[in-house]
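To whoever is covering the structure queue this week,

Two jobs came back overnight. Logging them here so there's a record in the thread.

Job A:
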Amino acid sequence: MIELKFIVDNLWILISALLVFIMHLGFSALEVGLTRQKNTVNVLFKNMFIISIGLISYALIGFNTMYPGEFNNILSIGGPIGFVDATKNLTHAYGDYTYYSDFLFQAMFAATGATIVSGAVAERVKLSSFLIFATLLVGLAYPIAGAWKWGGGFLDDMGFYDFAGSSVVHAFGGFAALACAWLLGPRADKYKNGKTNALNGHSMPLVAIGVFLLWFGWYGFNGGSVLSADPAAVSLVFVTTSLSAACGVLSSMFISWFINKKPDYTITANGALAGLVGITAGADVVSIWSACIIGLISGILLVFGSSLIEKVIKIDDPVGAITVHGICGIWGTIAVGIFSTQHSILTQTIGTLTISAFAFIFSLIVFGILKKTLGVRINGGLEHQGLDLLEHGHAAYPDFQTNS
């Protein structure tokens, strides 16, 4: 007879997988809202491709690369997932659910790194080159880096801790985005005569929908990472996740309001995501008040980090992905060492910088090769037309489309 705990835990993992899946709709809505309407179809197309290639590549190579069993500590390339008896608990060593549930939950995480990059290179990346890059990032680079922690690799042996992926998922995606956005260059008209021009997104309602969908899905992202339906652990993670997000909203809102003299909704919305990214590494091991501090600092880092990236370094990131996921991912991982007595600040720093550097170097090499061969950017002279017409031949809003 199947045990009740097995049924409940397995159901929670599957529900969590669905919550993480809906985050890809959240990313799509957020990216669409923060970019101009002439590039809407292109953003949606990339996100549809990413989740699809993420599932297929994770089934073919990613899952058994990331969780190889007897691990050689640095690199172990795995093969396709197996055909098993789906009624049995096959992961009892670390979770009370089936092999297929384990695969599906982890596969939903896999595509997120490439989705983060999608937003940072929006409105000027060549579609074919991006699809090749995204396939290699999600199919090869992510499971290799993920195995170093979650697959029992050398970072795990060091005592590095990343509960749900502030580094493994978010900093990884953020620093991959940094490399790609740097190589790609800014959008036309972003920088002129030494000044930074705001190229505003076209739909704040879509931004709101995207952020709330992401926040909602994060309960599966973090809550599912408990790897069981344990009442105490899941409820703690829900609370720390909620409070960190809320504090990220408030700190980013008030600081940007003070600096700009007016409240900025884009920054405030991204503040929620900053708080969510920040708490993801330690949602199960920090107190609820520590979670508030983590969220507050994440919101502060968002405001100043975004300004640094855009105005000082002059890297064009239309959605703020580099700061939200990269900078706040590093902060959240190091914060585990600060606010949890079980983990070392030094080890946490080494771990997050290792993953971030790997993502940056991998992306620099692969995207750099694509830039030299196929090219990674659309014809600059045609950029004003928008990628919807250039790459897809149709508009998202045909009845009232403009070149803005």
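Job B:
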Amino acid sequence: IAAVVMVEALHHVLLRNADAETSARAEQIAGSIRTERGPAGIDQSLLATSKNVAAIQITDASGAIRVTNNPMYSRPMAPPLEAGHRLTVHGARATDTDQEFQATALGVGTANGTFTVQVGAEEAPINATVAALGVLCSIVFPFIVIGMAILTYVFVGRALRPVDDIRIRVEEITGGDLDQQVPVPATADEIAALARTMNEMLH
């Protein structure tokens, strides 16, 4: 359960980080489009890739791609949006291949029409990281469980050893020698209290 929770938590964090970075880049591009009244004069530095920014597209109201950071991204990752609308797309496709993106789409209104800014983060590295953690957990956690089982066996056995000593002595006393006393462990716990109570009973 702990391994599953860890893997799911990591997956959620990585997707959230990707969403945050794609959303921030989409906002920057949208601001540039508003200033330039369209995508024609956009600052090219905004089209640069980074860890969580791979595919960038700007589409018009008809869904046609007007600007992209890579010609291979010829398939819009999201439908056209109205100005001010935002959409997060899981498993978006920017090409005709199986490559998937975690994409943020943002509708932008300008004097020259409405455009949709689409910024996508590759899901493959995210999935690979999560899979690696899953494999690591599947290797490490069984050893942790085995170690805990061994420690539990050792410490529980040590804790119950005084009970076994009391049981052996009681078997001897059952034979009729009521002058004997059961051993009282120096643990000051419930087992020691039981031994003292039994000795009082024998007395």
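Note for Job B: The chain has a mean pLDDT of 89.

Please reply-all if you pick these up so we don't duplicate work.
Q.
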